[in-house]
Amino acid sequence: MTAAAPTLSHLDWLEAEAIHILREVAGQCANPVLLFSGGKDSLVLLRLAEKAFRPGRFPFPLLHIDTGHNYEEVTAFRDRRAAELGERLIVRSLEDSIRQGRIALKSPMEARNRHQSVTLLDAIAEFGFDACIGGARRDEEKARAKERIFSFRDAFGQWDPKNQRPELWDLYNARIDAGENIRAFPISNWTELDIWQYIEREGLALPSIYFAHEREVAVRKDGALVPVTPLTPAKPGDDVQRLSVRFRTVGDITCTAPVRSTARTVAEILLETATTELTERGATRLDDQTSEASMEQRKKEGYF
Amino acid sequence: MATATLASGPDTRADLGVLRFLTCGSVDDGKSTLIGRLLYDSKAILADALQAIERTSRKRGHAEVDLSLLTDGLQAEREQGITIDVAYRYFSTGQRSFIIADAPGHEQYTRNMVTAASTADLALILVDARKGVLTQTRRHLTLAHLVGIRHLVVVVNKMDLVGYDQAVFERIRAEVLAFAGELGAEDLVFLPLSALAGDLVVERGGNLPWYGGPTLVELLESAALEDGREELPFRLSVQWVIRPHQDFRGYAGRVAAGRVKVGDALTVLPSDRRSRVKAIHLGGARLDEAVAGQSVILELEDDLDISRGDLLADAGRPPLPARSLDADLCWLSEAPSRPGGRYLLRHGSRETRAILHGTAHRLDLDSLQREPETRLAMNDIAQLSLTLQQPLSVDPYREIRATGAFILVDETTHATVAAGFIRGAE
Ligand SMILES: Nc1nc2c(ncn2[C@@H]2O[C@H](COP(=O)(O)OP(=O)(O)O)[C@@H](O)[C@H]2O)c(=O)[nH]1
User: Fold this and answer.
1) How far is residue A218's CA from residue A213's CA, in Å, rounded to a whole number?
2) Which of A165, B177, B189, B385 has its CA 20 to 30 A from that of B6?
């Protein structure tokens, strides 16, 4: 029994599901916002939003929580993309939260990912957002594998994995009380390979640091690469080399590591991705490795 | 390590879409091992994930890598050594992408399995070859049948522990078929395998030469998907109206059943106004036709007053108008139902209030008998009627899943308290 090729390819199916989710957020929530960092997953979200709402406007603004630790190429790209789309981009920065004393850093160079929740929750309160659309995927990490597509957060922004709403068929429940929040994840069911295949199919432009380029990196004993930047200068004794690398995720400079690569096009990245031996977070997020459960811990604190 | 032959690599063979399936089994039937095996053999388990598991396996004193550790999810559950909710896993064979819903078994089993099953095209029902058909097996079959999963595959696991004996397999098959007959479930497929040794999962192995059917992965790759070919009548719930200017009014939604072509006659429900399809849009392109599963924008020839919550349907084969519903409910919430209680009912993109009515007839999953019941507790499945504040347009769940399903939401706690399967309407 061989199946006839279905009308929808796997990318068509994932796209259709994501569009449906975006439209449900728009239909059920009064004041949603789409989190947009300039990273590849959020760029895919923007394309999906175009397919969901054009020729109309997006029924939500875009929001970036800026850690102040971003690569300039990514920030510039973020602004350009929002301008091209003609949609409103709101930027709220960790620096402001630090200045206001809402975030206390143990050291100025400390990784800022986990502090994003403070600035995000402040922005949610400032604008009264009742739903945040994010580009998280279930294949990224174990704790995410059981998170709902419409994920409920209490008034403290907390996720309670033990008390999630059952999610059946494509009937999503976005009912909340004031102060509570829904996080909606339209690309929950996508894998990293799907993302790259979609970027290729749709011809999406990406920030240049996703592609192979020469960069000074400190090569750690365990093989990890740490980019040498003003925020992360080489330490004495570091084995600093100039290597051809690319980033697989773009986030806080202090905790996002590149991988060795010569892939200069999406097609070449696809090949590398398909044959990679490391899962995405394992290879590139230095802060996640501390504990297997660290993501779950951070999510409980309101991290995206 | 050689990386050239990864199954998930770019591939020139036909893209066979996405198949969603769930795995059901009693504790220790080998569900986690089987999922781990699928992920492992399809090379979706990458090196560092494996290393972490290896470390954990060693810490727990296991000699070999325990593949079931791959599907454990949250911290608390890891501490208890069990999984308690629905988790989703992904793998691809290059030809087809798979989403596995893993709903583990114990007290909250019914609720988790119904949730996982609601989006599944296929169910793998595990039976331990040594234990044969258990009460649990019958429950899994009953639930899978109730939720209307299209492909039911009974996997007889641990064949290595019964010497790969064909007689054991045949005995289990006969027993399951007898029960399936009582249920009215048809078209079951049976597959002997060893999740631990890997026989008939991805590789055939040499231990089950008497079995001539497909391996598990061959089965998963070839199962037919719902894509409008079944000639179901067209249904689409309007999610959003796109009106950028005077000359464009588009109705956005996902085709829930059937297919729709430019020129087709549609009825808009509940108003029952008629029009024809003027254009179908997807991402800036115009389509001649859209099929089940696609998210599109429809333009109609006439300017009708259509908003979110309306249902567009084949004018020749419309859904049933409903003021009250006869339905099976699966109760999901820890708080029992309130007889005569009022709930929010979500059907497609429409929401209305509903009142639970009369006596519920609770289904005993073991005897398949119905007993009268006033309150539904978590995991109960019962037939009852609901009075609707506003009319809905529905189909029986057995005929069209998407327009035959609904959920109930508690107005105060906002919890999703029940899943509903429509039997009929008045
Ligand atoms: N001999 C044998 N043991 C198996 C097989 N499948 C699973 N097991 C073992 O059965 C036990 C329970 O398996 P597990 O996958 O954790 O079961 P689950 O509770 O259904 O997830 C483990 O010790 C597995 O190693 C099989 O095909 N053959």
Assistant:
1) 15
2) B189
